[in-house]
Amino acid sequence: MAIQQFDFASGKVVTTDRRQAMILVKDPAMQDQLLTMLRENLYKVPIKSADVKEVLEVVRAQKAGVLFLDDEIEGVSAVALITSVRSKFPEMAIIVISASPTKELAEAMLKMGVESLIKKPIAREQIYKALAKIK
């Protein structure tokens, strides 16, 4: 029998396999900032990197959790990456971080099943609000 956690703030039972987050963000300072905020929310972070292949290997191994995705990762389309992750790992929650989110981008991301779209620079309240949606 799996051990369950109870989040008193939301009043919900927390699925422990969703209490892990993979960070695919190009800026190391932002990676560290996200890592701190996630740990404050009792998330395990098995990887933080700007390397798509490294992060996707961990996503494949974990199969569930939260993927923080910078929409400006070099060498890959955020839309293609989201589509691929969604098709293979439907339990993976995706939060996109963008320097210039437009209404069109927000609509496209939401249609693809992205849980949240956060504007850079990230603020603690934005991250906490996004995490609260997926508990």
Molecular structure report:
The chain starts with a strand and ends with a helix. The strands form two sheets. Strands 4-3-5-6-7 form a five-stranded parallel sheet, with helices on both faces. A two-stranded antiparallel ribbon has the order 1-2. The chain contains five helices and seven strands; from the N terminus they run βββαβαβαβαβα. α4 links the parallel β6 and β7 (116-119). It is 41% helix and 25% strand. The chain is α/β, with parallel strands linked by helices and 135 residues long. The protein is globular, with a radius of gyration of 14 Å.
Key structural traits:
single chain; 135 residues; alpha/beta; five-stranded parallel β-sheet; 5 helices
Mean pLDDT: 88
Can you write the helix and strand succession as a string? EEEHEHEHEHEH
Query: Whole-Å distance between the termini?
Result: 20 Å
Strand order of the largest sheet: 4-3-5-6-7
Give a brief rundown of this model.
By secondary structure, the protein is an alpha/beta fold.
